[in-house]
Amino acid sequence: MTGPLPPSELARMVRARPLPGGPVVIEASPAECAALAARFGLSAVNWLRAEVQLAERGRAVRATGTLAAEVVQPCAVSLEDFTVSITAPIDLKFVHEAGRPTAADENAEIELEADDCDEIAYEGEMFDLGEAVAQTLGLAIDPYAEGPDADAARAAAGILREGEAQGPLAALLAGLKKD
What we know:
Elements: E1 13-15, E2 24-27, H1 30-40, E3 44-57, E4 60-74, E5 81-96, E6 118-122, E7 126-128, H2 129-140, H3 150-157, H4 170-176
Parallel strand pairs: 5-6
Antiparallel strand pairs: 1-7, 2-3, 3-4, 4-5
């Protein structure tokens, strides 16, 4: 059995009706940045800002905009921290539970188009736009990002890149692979 979800590190509740007139700007505080860094296994989130436009789409709310952030993460090779700038599009649809398919509809096949956005269900009169922005950040982080010293760390460990061969048989193998 699952329990309630923990509170979001970047909670920003938005009333679904009526929607705010202009764009919604979300800027993470230093405490929220630290909590997001811990959540996503980063050394730091230096700053995060999202600007999102909301529009009614029937019983749903379409959220489009851009997320920008600067994070510090460990290099996948050397484990040394380096700074990464992230810019990611936001394209989501918040759908009230009452407008979602019923259990009988769940067995029906649906086709998704390439430009279909992610749907997030919500209950009541409000949805958490901040949590959606936090999830967008989590998806935009490259878990295998390499820092500027990755090649030096590989060389120091004796790890060769694909196609780099050394040793007594390297010249013989290279001769066999000629076109």
